[in-house]
Amino acid sequence: MKTSGFTLIELVVVIIILGILAVTAAPKFLDITTDAHVAKNNANGAAFKSAIQLASAKAMIASSRGVSFDDLQVSGNSAAGKLDFNSNGYPVQQYFRLEEDPKLNNVVDCKAVWMVILDDAPTLSNFSDSSISDYQAIYIRNEQCLYKYNLRPTLSIYYDSRNGQVIIDDDPES
Predict the structure, then answer these.
(1) 3-state DSSP assignment of residue 54
(2) Sheet holding 91-93, edge to edge
(3) Neighbouring C-alpha atoms within 13 Å toward the C-beta of 158
(4) What is the C-alpha separation between 69 and 86, in angstroms, rounded?
(5) What is 61-115 written as a DSSP string?
(6) What value, to the nearest 5°, has the Cα angle with vertex 30 and ends 24 and 35?
(7) In the chain, where are the structural domains located?
(8) What does residue 61 show for φ and ψ, rounded to 5 degrees?
(9) Measuring CA to CA, which of 19, 57, 102, 166 is 20 to 30 A from 47?
(10) In the β-sheet with 156-160, what is the strand arrangement from edge to edge?
(11) Torsional sign, CA 59, 43, 160, 116
(12) Closest by alpha carbon to 85, among 67, 63, 66, 59?
């Protein structure tokens, strides 16, 4: 008698083999999500760093023409696109009154620099809740900000307004 099809044992063996392959491949697919978050943070950090450098260059050019570092137009045409720069030529705050020596000295300043310097900026808040914003702004101390990526809090962007340094922490394990 000739039969066609699989026996029950063959079917069980195939299912076991497929299960082993799925368990082996799953961690690789899960790691892709982490890689995507790292790539997004890196892109945002690179955009922020470039924008800081361009704004600083604009401030240096403006100061060579005798224009103050106070309320310099960085983005758009409205007052919302103006920033104040420190004596080293780096963005520090958005304060609409004249200030002799502007400094980045609170979380409001950190948020203002982020929102003005980046066109179509990722959302930012004071909270670490990813349902509220993409990043959490934190004023560290001594004119420095940390922008933590809320979906992976170990990823962040650091900004030191004293020297314009931007550091992108792209190690999801740190």
Answers:
(1) helix
(2) 72-73, 82-85, 91-93
(3) 14
(4) 7
(5) HHHHTT--SSSEE-SSSSGGGEEEE-TTS-EEE--SS--SS----SHHHHHHHHH
(6) 125
(7) 33-169
(8) -65, -45
(9) 102
(10) 124-125, 135-139, 144-149, 156-160, 165-169
(11) positive
(12) 59
Cα separation, 39 vs 6, in Å, equals: 46
Which of 20-24, 66-70, 144-148 bottoms out in mean pLDDT, i.e. has the lowest? 66-70
Q: Give Cα 65 to chain centroid, integer Å.
A: 33
Q: Which residue has the tokens 């780096």?
A: 90
The answer to whether residues 98 and 65 touch, using CB atoms and an 8 Å cutoff, is: no
**What is the C-alpha end-to-end distance of the chain, expressed in Å?**
66
Each residue's pLDDT tens digit, 101-125: 789 999 999 999 999 999 888 999 9
Mean pLDDT of the chain: 88
Task: Report d(CA 107, CA 137) in Å as an integer.
Answer: 6
